[in-house]
User: Which sequence fits this backbone?
């Protein structure tokens, strides 16, 4: 007898089908993993279950009874508790205050001490030891997540929904986390967790549902399956790369990164002794699931973030101590950043200003500090024409353009600066097929000109289309390297989820 | 439809000011005055009467410079609430320089005094900029609090080391005759100061339209990440823009001394630094419009007295109206084409979840 049943849930955003007739049934007191790549629809499904999105069609049953979720408070009332990927706590308040926040809406009097005692008892019984009087900002990330879990348990949740719960944890916290989840399951709670990490599925889940492009592609018992099968299901068909015709062989090493180490903003390890090298006239693809150090790697190379240790050189020049400006101007490193809206472009500026964003302080754009608006207009007209940037005029605000046209602005600017090294991060995110093809053809053109290109993407198929070599990144290090023709779904899937390591890069 | 929207966006600030004046007329009516008569008197006195206009111009000069002192940092994404303090320090530096340059030829002395005023204001504001850039301390709080320190430093100076011999009230010696600014309108107090303001407004407009320094400030103000990516030194932009703003406010203080007071007084600025904030927001940070908004605000204030005398309406009503203008203008700045369009089409979009998950963040 299934406890939680999702029956034919579909969710459309405009013409885009984020969920397509998803069926799911979960037994009481079991752990269900929801496995899939980025964009498979896992998070959308969780949001439906939490009342944040209303499904376009389909129904949800708990214990045979149909339920309607119009808001998160409905979900909580039905015993569904959501633990988001990023903890959402008021850091200045104590653990107990955070847990009590929002409870007892009808009365303004809260007996905090009574609550604190109950919380202490509850936390102990679930093996989630924590001092209710501690202020949240003093706690490490793993403990904060415990507070989130206690918060939903305290509201009486029977079903716990966790979105990528281990992504915020340090490696040593993960084992303890898995252990606590087992205690919760054994005490009768039903757990759904979203992940793309195969090792965690194997270690924790009883059943696993694999999703791809908004559809459920497989439901199986974890005991009856193995990581190889799961990774093939997750990635889908084997990716066969079209052999891009080269007009020129790769040359000497242009970009060399040795043993890069860096902590991210949260203080956890983002780059953990990562080494790569790219030759001129070569595209090195960096494959991996989001959040495994890709952003930090790109920013370290381009000088936006400082390394804790390691060395970066471009054509034998050590650029580790260079500023972002020097890396661009002297080392000729071009960068198409992942954060197109906040970093790659100034959305409120006109198109023309964005096309000269990285060169407006130097001739020919500026002379003795005075901008040459004629030159800017000519540059803009030329690039908009050659890169097919569609807009009413160069004076139009960049905010009004489509994602594809915005990306073309970034690409035009970075390529026209004639870089020796070009770092391209998640360049196809949010683009339609036509724009993706355009980006790829420009990158191949640029490779044939002799540029060393680092192509970072979470989309395996896009990497396979352009890359000459593929390195797989997992938890801040390269776990393996392969050639596009060796790229099978299971091999890549295994490397990307850290289930095994390939030959050293 | 779209042209109407664009027009509404383009004219949102004048619309907001008109709405504020309309709301203000309710206040006047509540005080059993006649709004039409009161506004008529106010604007006639402020802009059409010879004496009234001279009074308006006297106030325009510091308000305009103080507005520019807000606009420059604002374009770089910083709020300079410290114009008042920077005016005081500018006045102090100008007076010290002027008193030491007695007998020096005016061609050397006047530029030196003006430079001193600007340096004083710039240093005072750069303090806040440096704390923001290297220590991450909120510039709003620092500039605001530095106001009080500056005001008290001047009070100390003019009631202590700089106090004129035998003065009944805290003020300094008079500055030399030769350094006083020429009068623009004969027999009034309207001095040349407003020329400095207009020149500064023109120069700042030029900097933002035509120079890479201006463009860099705009980039930094609109996106700090993009500025770093563009290779700009964001910390330097912060200090530079605050110091420039401070220099302009300092100039306002210096000109108050050189053009109007001829000596440094205890509490010599009547809150011009704060009026400058209002004038700056009324332009939506466009330096070319600052002369207009400053002139308008100065007119409201100089007309207020006449309105009080002639129509029997309390002058504080004008202060309330200025407050209403601030609220309305601030609200109008939230209008954006895309938002208005979304609002008008509200019917056919349901994809925004009714409850947004918000993230509590703190550093």
Assistant:
């Amino acid at each position: 007898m299934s406890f939680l049943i999702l029956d034919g849930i579909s969710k459309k955003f405009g013409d885009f089908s984020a969920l397509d007739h998803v069926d799911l049934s979960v037994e009481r007191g079991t752990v269900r993993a929801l496995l899939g790549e980025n964009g498979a629809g896992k998070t959308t499904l969780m949001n439906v279950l939490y009342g944040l999105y209303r499904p376009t069609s389909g129904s949800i049953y708990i214990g045979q009874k149909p339920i309607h979720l119009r808001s998160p408070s409905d979900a909580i009332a039905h015993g569904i508790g959501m633990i988001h990927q990023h903890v959402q706590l008021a850091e200045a308040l104590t653990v107990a205050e955070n847990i009590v926040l929002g409870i007892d809406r009808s009365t303004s009097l809260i007996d905090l001490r009574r609550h604190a005692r109950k919380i202490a008892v509850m936390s102990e019984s679930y093996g989630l030891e924590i001092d209710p009087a501690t202020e949240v900002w003093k706690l490490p990330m793993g403990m904060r997540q415990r507070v989130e879990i206690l918060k939903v348990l305290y509201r009486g949740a029977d079903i716990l929904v966790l979105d990528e719960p281990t992504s915020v944890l340090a490696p040593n916290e993960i084992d303890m986390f898995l252990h606590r989840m087992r205690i919760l399951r054994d005490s009768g709670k039903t757990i759904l967790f979203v992940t793309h990490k195969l090792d965690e599925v194997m270690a924790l889940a009883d059943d696993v549902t694999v999703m791809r492009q908004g559809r459920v592609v497989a439901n199986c018992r974890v005991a009856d399956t193995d990581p190889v099968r799961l990774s093939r299901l997750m990635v889908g068909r084997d990716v066969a790369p079209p052999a891009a015709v080269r007009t020129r062989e790769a040359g000497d090493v242009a970009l060399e990164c040795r043993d890069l180490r860096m902590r991210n903003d949260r203080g956890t390890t983002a780059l953990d002794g990562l080494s790569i090298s790219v030759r001129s006239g070569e595209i090195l693809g960096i494959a991996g699931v989001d959040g495994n150090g890709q952003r930090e790697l790109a920013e370290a190379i381009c000088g936006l973030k400082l390394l804790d240790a390691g060395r970066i050189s471009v054509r034998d020049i050590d650029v580790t101590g260079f500023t972002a400006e020097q890396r661009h101007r002297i080392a000729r490193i071009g960068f198409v950043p992942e954060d197109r809206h906040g970093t790659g472009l100034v959305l409120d500026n006109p198109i023309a200003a964005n096309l000269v964003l990285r060169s407006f302080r130097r001739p020919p754009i500026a002379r003795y500090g005075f901008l040459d608006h004629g030159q800017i207009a000519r540059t803009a007209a030329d690039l908009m024409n050659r890169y097919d940037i569609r807009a009413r005029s160069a004076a139009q605000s960049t905010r009004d353009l489509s994602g594809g046209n915005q990306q073309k602005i970034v690409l035009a600017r970075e390529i026209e600066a004639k870089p020796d090294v070009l770092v391209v991060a998640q360049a196809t995110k949010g683009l339609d097929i036509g724009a993706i093809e355009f980006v790829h053809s420009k990158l191949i053109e640029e490779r044939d000109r002799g540029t060393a290109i680092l192509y970072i993407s979470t989309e395996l198929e896009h990497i396979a289309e352009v890359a000459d070599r593929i390195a797989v990144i997992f938890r801040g290090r390269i776990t393996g390297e392969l050639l596009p023709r060796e790229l099978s779904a299971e091999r890549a899937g295994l490397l990307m989820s850290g289930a095994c390591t390939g030959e050293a890069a | 439809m779209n042209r109407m929207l664009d027009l509404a966006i383009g004219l949102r600030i004048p619309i907001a000011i008109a709405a504020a004046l309309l709301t203000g007329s309710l206040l006047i009516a509540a005080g059993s005055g006649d709004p039409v008569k009161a506004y008529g008197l106010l604007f006639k006195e402020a802009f059409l009467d010879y004496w009234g206009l001279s009074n308006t111009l006297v106030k325009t000069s510091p308000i305009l410079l103080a507005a520019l002192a807000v606009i420059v940092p604002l374009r770089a994404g910083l709020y300079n609430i410290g114009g008042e303090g920077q005016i005081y320090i500018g006045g102090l530096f100008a007076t010290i320089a002027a008193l030491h340059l007695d007998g020096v030829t005016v061609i050397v002395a006047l530029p030196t005094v003006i430079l001193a005023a600007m340096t004083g204001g710039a240093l005072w504001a750069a303090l806040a900029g440096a704390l923001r850039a290297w220590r991450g301390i909120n510039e709003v709080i620092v500039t605001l609090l530095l106001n009080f320190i500056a005001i008290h430093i001047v009070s100390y100076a003019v009631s202590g080391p700089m106090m004129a011999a035998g003065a009944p009230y805290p003020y300094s010696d008079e500055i030399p005759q030769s350094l006083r600014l020429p009068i623009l309108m004969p027999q009034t107090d309207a001095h040349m100061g407003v020329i400095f303001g207009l020149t500064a407004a023109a120069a700042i407009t030029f900097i933002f339209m035509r120079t890479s320094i201006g463009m860099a400030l705009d980039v930094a103000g609109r996106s700090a990440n993009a500025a770093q990516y563009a290779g700009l030194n964001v910390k330097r932009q912060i200090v530079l823009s605050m110091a420039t703003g401070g220099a302009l406010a300092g100039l306002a203080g210096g000109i108050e001394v050189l053009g109007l007071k001829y000596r440094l007084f205890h509490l010599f600025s009547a809150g011009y630094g704060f009026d400058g904030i209002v004038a700056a927001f009324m332009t939506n940070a466009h330096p070319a419009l600052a002369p207009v908004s400053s002139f308008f605000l100065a007119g409201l204030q100089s007309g207020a007295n006449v309105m009080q005398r002639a129509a029997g309406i309390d002058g504080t009503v004008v202060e309330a109206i200025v407050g209403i203008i601030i609220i309305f203008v601030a609200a109008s700045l939230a209008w954006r084409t895309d938002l208005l369009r979304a609002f008008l089409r509200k019917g056919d979009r349901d994809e925004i979840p009714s409850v947004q998950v918000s993230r509590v963040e703190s550093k």
Confidence is low (pLDDT under 50) at residues 346-363 of chain B.
